[in-house]
Write a structure and sequence with these properties.
The structure is a homodimer. Chain A is α+β, with helices and mostly antiparallel strands. Chain A contains six helices and three strands. The interface between A and B is large, with 54 and 54 residues. Chain A binds a DNA duplex through helix 3 and helix 4.
Chain lengths: 109, 109
DNA sequence: CCGTATCCTTTCTGATACTG
DNA sequence: CAGTATCAGAAAGGATACGG
């Protein structure tokens, strides 16, 4: 079993991780700081931290530290991350065509 | 918090559900029977059943029953489901460019 | 063949509290 | 500000057995 396409599976494993889509969506808009992201996303700091670490490990997100005072840390997309733009774009297109804004929180069968 | 884009969030909630990507990938290839999918996917029958039911509820997958003998049941994509083809395609493109086939099972920090 | 029901284990999430 | 540690509850996942 399981041999659809190893690369595709690998990609899905990253992208389909919960919250990753929203994080990417946000970072495509530009560099962000931790607290900004935490404010704009519906997740706790711990989860955001987990995901950013994971995405950094995957080479999708870059973490830049500016030794000013106070220290500033910014997150942005790497080239690999920016390459996901078409994916996010297509999801957005599909969402516009097929998903109603009220959809959220309706999926408890 | 949370107001990136309700539609996008709704879309991500469906698409990023674990295994959904692989299921869509498979169905884009054509109509499939339950046992075929179970054989080709790395998930148990219970999960496959759950996901198909969810996708059917979302109007993405169609379930067709042919009253032959023995009864034959086939799954295929609805128009809404086929509209996801560009998304899957872009993920595939990204995977080809950026994901190594060995990637699987490396994400346990 | 095509599932559903149940049980049990693993993983994921979120709240809270605490460092540099 | 930018996280990490811990802990408990929720959700997801797999195995198995059974029904149409």
């Amino acid at each position: 079993m399981t041999d659809l396409c190893p690369r595709f599976e690998g990609a899905m494993e990253i992208i389909s991780k919960r919250w990753v889509g929203l994080i990417l969506f946000q970072l495509l808009d530009g560099t962000k700081r931790f607290s900004e992201m935490e404010t704009d996303l519906p997740i706790s700091g711990r989860l955001l931290s987990d995901r950013l670490k994971m995405l950094e490990k995957e080479g999708i997100v870059e973490r830049n530290i500016y030794s000013e005072f106070p220290v500033r840390i910014e997150y942005s997309l790497s080239e690999k991350g920016r390459a996901l733009k078409p994916v996010i774009q297509e999801i957005q297109n599909w969402a516009n065509d097929w998903v109603s804004p009220e959809h959220l929180n309706e999926n408890k069968a």
